[in-house]
Amino acid sequence: MAPEKTDPVAILGAGAWGLSTALHLLNSGHTNITVFDQASQIPSPYSGAYDLNKIVRAEYEDEFYTELALKAINTWKTPLWGGNFHQVGYVVATTGAAPEKAVKHLQKALGSVKNHPVFSGGITPLSKSRDFKDIYWQFTGPLNGFRGYHNRLAGYAHSSNAMVDIYQHLAGRGVKFVLGPLEGKAVKLLYSRDHNTPRSCTGFQAASGENHNASLTIVCLGAWAAKLLPDIGSYVKAKCWSVAHIQLTERECDYLRGIPVLNVRDLGFFFEPDPATRLFKLCPLGAGYINTNKSTGISLPPGESLPAPRDYIPAIDEKKLRTLLRETLPWLADRPFVDNKMCWFADTDDSEYTVDFVPSTDNSLIVLSGDSGHGFKMMPIVGEWVVQLLKDGKQNLSRWQFRQNLGKDGRDWGDQVSWRIGTTGEIDELIAEKDRVVKARL
Ligand SMILES: Cc1cc2nc3c(=O)[nH]c(=O)nc-3n(C[C@H](O)[C@H](O)[C@H](O)COP(=O)(O)OP(=O)(O)OC[C@H]3O[C@@H](n4cnc5c(N)ncnc54)[C@H](O)[C@@H]3O)c2cc1C
């Protein structure tokens, strides 16, 4: 049974999906919403979206997500969201040295927009380096063997600013926020003591020891979901990719203003520089790193005992990014990278999300997870899925149902994901690599 609109609702996690959930529940009439986050501020530095920008595009191998992304893009163009959306265009390419997997993925992604009634008019094929230079006059690199296309109706959103704006909007409309590593951090879900099946989730316990009662608890912990719901860890794996930046001068920033997002499937992607910080963000593409607990098979972001490597990206990722720059903007190719980080998301083998009631919990507990590294663009509409779930009383989309009885296998399948090139590594190997690099420099 759906909760009454005045019943207490606890949303755990104030990242992209938790904030969107709060917004849509508020808009649907809920008046007693509290959002909790382990971070002391919004945007949370733990969020996968704690970043300058994220790609907003509708290219997918599966038209279900193309249609969702189109809906999200249309919502990005409304007053609440539009200040953070930049429809600068999106160029997808492969280099002359790209593996077949990257070329195939590009063709499939193009297929989803090339004949689409909304996008087809905005697609331009790019078959030689001159075609790229016509769109990016700033490109002075050789663009060896570059092939791809330009999609005019895509771009990026400023992800940290979008989270701040929605947070302020919610706080101003009566949604309560409890933040911080003690009061805001959820450590345990609480269940009724009557041993009924299905059991009832009655709220959660915070790291401070305080119990918070709620008629409906919604877990939006991104890569951390399995911390509270270990069963989801059988198919949702915390995974990280690296992010690097180059500090530009004001003039350099002006020079690159207006460039489309460039996504080179076998190397990485970059964005128009951020005018406020003058940072130019780059991400290498690859299969990422996981942190598998050998006894449970569950991957969670590292905690205090195994700190994530800071101010560091793997050598293989740096090589990809420097190649990307040499091919496109060679004057930046040897600049130092700053604000390097590893950024965590919740991955699934088929890149499907989970938006469902937790099995055997009488619809008092919902989990949203498995963003698979493509969930930020959906921020404007994610909460609608929760409102629909509450209305329907069950998840009618089998692809988004909580997967049960998978057991633990500890095996990673990241390498098989069609849109990832490379091999998934374990984070402890990365930390060992980092230590070797630091020692070699001493
Ligand atoms: C490098 C990188 C690049 C990406 N690029 C794109 C892109 O271009 N386009 C795109 O659409 N998506 C992209 N994504 C994915 C996007 O960031 C995620 O899909 C999105 O952030 C998922 O939102 P979420 O709310 O599920 O998780 P998050 O945004 O990670 O939020 C989880 C929240 O839970 C909080 N939390 C964790 N544990 C606790 C606890 N115990 N108690 C309380 N709070 C807790 C955290 O502090 C955090 O605020 C990218 C991700 C990465 C890592």
Task: Label this structure with key terms.
10-stranded mixed β-sheet, binds flavin-adenine dinucleotide, FAD/NAD(P)-binding domain, D-Amino Acid Oxidase, Chain A, domain 2, single chain, 11 helices, about 450 residues, 6-stranded mixed β-sheet, globular, alpha/beta, 2 domains
Describe it for me?
The chain has helices at 16-27, 63-76, 79-82, 100-114, 129-135, 159-172, 225-228, 250-256, 315-328, 379-392, 427-441; strands spanning 9-12, 33-37, 54-56, 85-86, 90-94, 123-126, 147-151, 155-157, 176-179, 186-191, 201-206, 211-213, 216-219, 237-247, 261-264, 268-270, 279-284, 289-290, 338-347, 354-357, 365-369, 425-426. The protein contains eleven helices and 22 strands. 27% of the residues lie in helices and 23% in strands. It folds into two domains: 1-52 and 158-235 and 349-407, FAD/NAD(P)-binding domain (3-Layer(bba) Sandwich), CATH 3.50.50; 88-156 and 237-347 and 412-442, 2-Layer Sandwich (D-Amino Acid Oxidase, Chain A, domain 2). The protein starts with 8 loop residues before the first strand and ends with a helix. The mean pLDDT is 93. The protein is globular. By secondary structure, the chain is an alpha/beta fold. Strands 5, 6, 7, 14, 15, 16, 17, 18, 19 and 22 form a ten-stranded mixed β-sheet that branches. Helix 1 (16-27) packs parallel to helix 6 (159-172). The structure holds flavin-adenine dinucleotide (FAD). Residues 12-18, 36-39, 44, 46-49, 54-55, 184-186, 220-224, 227, 241, 243, 283, 343, 345, 371, 373-377 line the site of flavin-adenine dinucleotide (FAD).
